[in-house]
Amino acid sequence: MVKIDILTLFPEMFDGVLNSSILGKAQEKGIVQFQVINFRDYSESKHGTVDDTPYGGGGGMVLKPEPIFRAVEAVAGDAKPRVILMCPQGRSYDQKMAEELAGEEHLVFICGHYEGYDERIRQYLVTDEISIGDYVLTGGELAAMVVIDSVVRLQPGALGNQSSAEKDSFTTGLLEYPHYTRPAEFRGWKVPDILLSGHHANIERWRLKESLRRTRERRPDLLEKGELPDEWKALLAELEEEEKNSGSESE
Question: Residue 95 CA to chain centroid, in angstroms?
Answer without folding.
Answer: 18
